[in-house]
Amino acid sequence: MEVVSDFDGTIVNIDTVEYLLAQYADGDWRRYDDLYERGEISLEECLRQQYRMIREPERELLDAVDNVASFRAGFDEMLALAMKDGNSFTIVSAGLDFVITHLLRRRNIPNQIAIFAPKSKPTPQGIVLDFSGLPRGDSPNFKSNVVQSIKARGRSVAYVGDGYSDFEAIKGADVRFVINGSRLEEKCKEDNIACREIIDFREITGFLTGPRTRSRTNEEAQGA
Asked: What is the pLDDT of residues 51-83, one digit of tens each?
């Protein structure tokens, strides 16, 4: 079983990108979220347009998130379990890779965790993104392509997320966890995608430690 998790708003308590955009973006960054959700632009285009509105240096951005970001309860225990007994753990994120690695390092999280996120480089003209290192596949959403690439190796996937950008990926997962009260929970309900609603990672730990020979849950059956 591969546990694949979003980062912003899922592993950490806030969406660090939305926080930084609200603090620093020079322009109406929310309009690109609206365009993306209406299917008028891709996820990549949405992120490119939004991130180019942030022109502050990396150190200032890291200091800003240090003051507000904390890890969701139960993450350390879940991660330790997911890294042994045949399980594994992957982060897939539309966030800023240097923010993700900084917060993981601050938490003393092992650096062997696989992270799939666009490479981001702060410049005086805005943050520049590079998607070339991410898996390509049938979906225009790279998160979905990560899930597809894992399943192509014969692994089952438990996906954890909270945002609209996680929707295509979670549809392809074998087991689906959504943060209670999130935009992803709302979207899954709108489209009748069965998911387990959680408030922290202790519930995922409980799933991983449960009988592996149990009969499939309703959501697993629907995802088959």
From this structure: 999 999 999 999 999 999 999 999 999 999 888
Please say whether the dihedral angle defined by the alpha carbons of residues 25, 27, 33 and 39, taken in this order, is positive or negative. negative
Give the C-alpha separation, 93 to 100, whole Å.
9
> Both tokens of residue 32?
């690109």
Q: What is the CATH number of the domain that holds 95?
A: 3.40.50.1000
Q: Which domain holds residue 121?
A: 2-223
Residue given tokens 């609209």 in the structure block? 164
The long-range contacts involving 84-87, CB below 8 angstroms and separated by at least 24 positions, are: 86/1, 87/1, 87/2, 87/3, 87/208
CA distance 10 to 182: 10
Distance CA 99, CA 166 (A): 19
Provide the domain count of the chain: 1
Decide: pTM greater than 0.85. yes
Q: What angle do CA 177, 180, 184 make, to 5 degrees?
A: 65
